Amino acid sequence: MAAKPPINPSKAQTPIAEDDGGIGSSSKIKEVIPKRGYLHCEDELTFVLCKPKLLPLKSFTMEKLEKIQAESVEKAKEMMENSNAYYICTILTFEDELTSE
């Protein structure tokens, strides 16, 4: 097999397509000026004010974390109360055993 010489881009032939007047065509745009009616032009650029967007003071994630933390604190309190109740019951039964003897 013989090696092909490299292609020189300046000598490469490109197919010439007919101009169909579509987007990206090189034909000139025909200017149309209305004979009747208003022609409106703006010389100044002005700001367009839109409705303000209200942002939450706390993000959704922060609220979720606070909720989880509050639930864990509540569970810890319940566990402490339950464990205290267990110890109180144990002490009372131990005292009852001592007094019954």
TrEMBL record:
<dbReference type="GO" id="GO:0034464">
    <property type="term" value="C:BBSome"/>
</dbReference>
<dbReference type="GO" id="GO:0097500">
    <property type="term" value="P:receptor localization to non-motile cilium"/>
</dbReference>
<dbReference type="GO" id="GO:0060271">
    <property type="term" value="P:cilium assembly"/>
</dbReference>
<feature type="region of interest" description="Disordered">
    <location>
        <begin position="1"/>
        <end position="27"/>
    </location>
</feature>
<dbReference type="InterPro" id="IPR028233">
    <property type="entry name" value="BBIP10"/>
</dbReference>
<protein>
    <submittedName>
        <fullName>BBSome-interacting protein 1</fullName>
    </submittedName>
</protein>
<dbReference type="Pfam" id="PF14777">
    <property type="entry name" value="BBIP10"/>
</dbReference>
